[in-house]
Amino acid sequence: MASLQVTQEQERITSPPMASLLCPPYKAVMYDQYGEPDKVLRLADVGPVELGARDVCVKMLAAPINPSDINSIEGVYPNKPTVPGAVGGIEGVGQVQAVGPAVTASLSPGDWVIAFPHTAMGTWQTYAVKPQELWHKVRNDVPMEYAATVTVNPLSALVLLQCFTKLNPGDTIVQNGATSIVGQCVIQLAKAQGIRTINIIRDRPGSEQAKHRLTQLGAHLVFTESQLRVKNVKSLLGTLPEPALGFDCVGGNAASLTMRVLRKGGTMVTYGGMSKEHVNVSTSSFIFKDLSFKGFWLWNWVNSDKVVDCKKMIDYLLDLVKEGKLTYQTELTPFRDFGLALNKAQGKLGAQPKQVVSFWDKAKL
Amino acid sequence: MASLQVTQEQERITSPPMASLLCPPYKAVMYDQYGEPDKVLRLADVGPVELGARDVCVKMLAAPINPSDINSIEGVYPNKPTVPGAVGGIEGVGQVQAVGPAVTASLSPGDWVIAFPHTAMGTWQTYAVKPQELWHKVRNDVPMEYAATVTVNPLSALVLLQCFTKLNPGDTIVQNGATSIVGQCVIQLAKAQGIRTINIIRDRPGSEQAKHRLTQLGAHLVFTESQLRVKNVKSLLGTLPEPALGFDCVGGNAASLTMRVLRKGGTMVTYGGMSKEHVNVSTSSFIFKDLSFKGFWLWNWVNSDKVVDCKKMIDYLLDLVKEGKLTYQTELTPFRDFGLALNKAQGKLGAQPKQVVSFWDKAKL
């Protein structure tokens, strides 16, 4: 952990007057082997880096610590960064500092860009040099913590809503894990499209407050798991149309409850497994209720032919943020407190908002 | 049961010289309430029935006793025939006897027709009158037990192979329950299309003979469930491409083994649940292996917009029968022994070939 202490001294990197095609020396959170993040991560000094003809040098503003970042460092995620010399972080926002002479994208110093697609791994650094196609220009009039986090949770929510079953205004979807950031985004994105949401949350202290919060976000119905343990689950829906689409990020009992709410011929998409339990499907659900079950993993999705679509979706999401129609809780932590943010992101200090590391004092931007 | 004894006396129905638009009086196996087949079935005398303008009178030749017929009579099948007055049987072949004056289909006395689509329920009768669109003309140079049984098991096998994932010659599929008639048809139909099959069967006495029999039919690989309980199941496939499509008619452990053989992004279709156990899917199979799971029920399928396609598929299947490329074991039982056939179909006399009832002595055809 000591190696991760960013001292005031270290942070005061003075950006030298830009040499023609040099990105300034920078600090990066790196690792050389897989393992426990607080054991293997180290703060490294890198650079200055010379820009290739089509490279863009970006001064990173902010990047979150996602659960998948932790899993990547632990080496338990299917996509393994190359070690030694891996830089942590898969998403983040920065400000264009300099562009190579052959860059054709409309990118100028000062523009905000996000690291996308995610193959552009390594966002936990104060500067980053990557080819132009790995940066996507975004509006710069939203809080930077939203630009920094738009490509994982909100984009997942939008893909779930748009890319599995054709939904129309007035339709209904059902989801479990509704209090997660993806769940909260699903509620708000559905509302923006006139789609009603049936939301399933855990039975636990505070579930009434959680219901209230989700309702404030636009949830149509919210049930705890125990409330759905009734014989005729459809009777709880009132006049709502039965949903053709369901989202599952829990597995186990929560997945079973979600599929019970689906209409005949419906589809459930599993995108997480918080309970670490399997999804159990009766053969009659397949044969007579004609349910379909699919998986969704954003990395597979984005690394297919969906990059252009996804960039449009990202722009749409940040437009919604600007309009106040998409909100979720983040905590901006200065880079010097990276170790603290890491502990919070790992749940070592109890439930916390998503940790977003800001790399520079605002005064220096 | 006594009511089901067809005496020699009863069977000697003498077809009267056809009145202009009358179908002769006939015998039907009927039921007036749901229940145990040997309790609720009765042999009824019906008719003569007057033909409507677009009706066709068919002298039924043969009809099988399928498990779904039993379930329908028991009232446990989702599609419930209307009682009282339901006639058993969903598939069968007959010979056109007379056509109504406004019939436009190319149907002439002597033609072989099958009851299709299955909405034309009630094939356990010596004559049947139904509108022209509920009869499909088929070739009459195959054994009648194949024409009588083509619309349930062989058609299911062909839909499974053709309608879920685009397969090309050289591709591979995997299936469990491979010794079932559907399973045997899948093997032969796949072979006819140049598709290789990986087959999973139960561990039981005689499994070596079963392997041999399936291999004779064209199976590429046959494994018992226990043989697949190895860490690297893909090592068993040798040079075979990993299958993109799998069929499950068992659920439980057999379903889990089937999905393990599938390639990343593959689809498993569940069309039966012989083990009466659920299909268990790990969330990582959804998320990281990107597997999809669907159901298939022929009744749903045929009652959609697939009737024209299915008729072409039925013709293709009977062509294969004629060419000797599609074979499965049936037992032709005379109508007078209907009660015996019913017992055999219900498994009361041990494992038996599919029971097909022939309504007339060959000499009378």
UniProtKB/TrEMBL annotation, chains A, B:
Protein's UniProt keywords contain NAD: no
Oligomer and partners: Homodimer.
Domain Enoyl reductase (ER): 35-351
Protein name: Enoyl-[acyl-carrier-protein] reductase, mitochondrial
Location(s), subcellular: Mitochondrion
Any one GO biological process: fatty acid biosynthetic process
Keywords from the named record: Fatty acid biosynthesis, Fatty acid metabolism, Lipid biosynthesis, Lipid metabolism, Mitochondrion, NADP, Oxidoreductase, Transit peptide
Enzyme nomenclature, EC number: 1.3.1.104
One of the record's GO molecular function terms: enoyl-[acyl-carrier-protein] reductase (NADPH) activity
Catalysed reactions, semicolon-separated: a 2,3-saturated acyl-[ACP] + NADP(+) = a (2E)-enoyl-[ACP] + NADPH + H(+)
Matches recorded under Pfam families: ADH_N, ADH_zinc_N
Family membership: Belongs to the zinc-containing alcohol dehydrogenase family. Quinone oxidoreductase subfamily.
Alphabetized Gene3D superfamilies for the sequence: Medium-chain alcohol dehydrogenases, catalytic domain (3.90.180.10), NAD(P)-binding Rossmann-like Domain (3.40.50.720)
GO CC annotation: mitochondrion
Enzyme class of the recorded protein, top EC level: oxidoreductase
